[in-house]
Amino acid sequence: MRRMLALGLAASIGLGGWSAHAQRLLLPPPERPDALMRAVTAEVVAVLKQDLAAGQATDVALLVETKILPLFDFRRMTRMAVARNWPLASPEQQLALVEQFTALLVRTYSSALSSYRDQEIHYKPLRAAAGDTEVLVRSTIRRSGVEALTLDYDMEDTLAGWKVYDVKIAGISLVITYRESFAAMVREAGIDGLIRSLTEKNRQNARAQTQ
Q: How many structural domains are present in the chain?
């Protein structure tokens, strides 16, 4: 009897394992990071072109919130920018830093979208090996009368899917450019001083937008 129970248990575990494996096989394959960026970019550009042709202002805030924000890992971006001072911040301070840095980056991205004038964005073939969890997605923005601008995204394969953790414009990291100024602020006024500075910067940007 015990042997039969053991065999039955083993069989059920085996079937359970096979069932889980079968379910995974039935799931659609994970989207490639370059395909993800290309698809989202196409959606955003389509909205911008439609509004531009109609002569109406784009709801940039809504566009960024629904299409852009879900793609970014703002916590990792903030941690990279704050660098060695990140562990010195309390959980509450880290939360505040992420909130304010996110607002700053979103404002930067929104301004770029607001200035869109029918530029063409092209993605280059992805250079990545199977199983890579971090990749560089490369693209170029072609502008009339001037040299094309490179716009590259560092992306990580997370539990929530592929996420952008840095943007390189003409080879210059958007996140790293803040690192030196953030370090100087922390030296002068501590973590709270950096939070206050970011908060004030975001307030100034908000006031400028309403004027």
A: 1
- Under 8 Å between Cβ of 150 and 138: yes
Residue at 2 is within a domain: no
> Consecutive sets of 10 residues in the chain, 211 residues long: mean pLDDT of each?
37 41 47 92 89 87 87 96 97 98 88 78 91 94 83 94 93 92 96 97 84 63
The Cα–Cα gap between 145 and 139 comes to 19
For residue 61 the two structure tokens come to 């805030």
In this structure, what CATH number is given to the domain that contains residue 164?
Answer: 3.10.450.710
**71, part of any domain:** yes
Q: How would you classify residue 33: left for phi > 0, otherwise alpha for psi between -120 and 50, otherwise beta? A: alpha
Q: What is the pTM assigned to this prediction?
A: 0.80
